[in-house]
Amino acid sequence: MAVVIHGGFWRAKYTALLGRPLARDLAEHGWAAWNLEYRRVGNGGGHLTTLDDVSAGIDHLAVLENLDLSTVVTIGHSAGGHLATFAAGRQRYQRWSTSKVSVTAVIAQAAVMDLVAARRAALGNGAVDNYVGGPDVPINVETDPYQQIPLPVPVWCIHGWGDHEVPVAQSLSYVQQARGQGARANLVALDGDHFTVVDPDSVAWAVTRQLLDSLSTVPNDQSHLAGPAGEHIR
């Protein structure tokens, strides 16, 4: 099962339409693909609300019939990579401790992996401050993947060397810190910019799909399934 989580610096104008081409490509290659939407800054989202939506969207898979949830890989781009990584460790926190569906691996594409560093660098014109609720709001462990190291599942960071929106240093520092603490983390850095990694025709996406296939036997076709918490692309 692949859960696609779109980016857009957590802002309302960026929607699940961004994730649809990737989810469709995965479905065409035999994966059950769940294109997850969530509330964002400007339409009721931000900080805990957004995290609640992501957790609930993944848990909704448990009520769908005939889904193999022995492998659940979250694949997130940019801010979606932040959310994909959060989802893998959410059950350690009381707020999401009763979550029904566990994430078994993360693929973070050009992801915001260190919110403190991202705030310091003013990535996305202050996107982190917008997301957490202001420049004086502390970034706590529930919010920040970097502070959640080590995770109990493998994390793969896919990043373009020429990314000026979210520099590759975000992935590099996460992987170095995670490996230093004994976690399973790897960086795949390729030529390209912030959006190369989400181009279904790119080498970066081909590598991502190969990586996904290596994480589990591809599930049986389940393209008839759908539900309100996301899009199941056929």
Give your account of this protein's structure.
The protein is α/β, with parallel strands linked by helices. It has a single domain, classed as Rossmann fold (3-Layer(aba) Sandwich), CATH 3.40.50. It is 30% helix and 14% strand. The chain is built from 7 helices and 7 strands; from the N terminus they run βαβαβαβααβαβαβ. It has helices at residues 20-28, 47-59, 79-89, 115-120, 127-132, 169-180, 203-215; strands at 2-5, 33-36, 73-77, 105-109, 155-160, 185-190, 230-232. A 7-stranded mixed beta sheet has the order 6-5-4-3-1-2-7, sandwiched between helices. Helix 6 links the parallel strand 5 (155-160) and strand 6. Helix 2 (47-59) packs across helix 3. The relative contact order is 0.19. Mean pLDDT is 92; it is low at 217-234. Residues 3-173 form the BD-FAE-like domain. GO terms for molecular function: hydrolase activity.
Topology:
Blueprint: E1 2-5, H1 20-28, E2 33-36, H2 47-59, E3 73-77, H3 79-89, E4 105-109, H4 115-120, H5 127-132, E5 155-160, H6 169-180, E6 185-190, H7 203-215, E7 230-232
Parallel strand pairs: 1-2, 1-3, 3-4, 4-5, 5-6
Antiparallel strand pairs: 2-7
The CATH class is: Alpha Beta
What is the overall number of helices?
7
**Element order: H for helix, E for strand:** EHEHEHEHHEHEHE
The CATH level-2 architecture is identified as 3-Layer(aba) Sandwich
Quickly count the domains.
1
Assign the structural class, choosing from mainly alpha, mainly beta, alpha/beta, alpha+beta, or little secondary structure.
alpha/beta
Question: Residue-averaged pLDDT, rounded?
Answer: 92
Biggest β-sheet description: 7 strands, mixed
* Fourth-tier CATH superfamily name: Alpha/Beta hydrolase fold, catalytic domain
Tell me the total number of β-strands.
7
Structural Rg: 16 Å
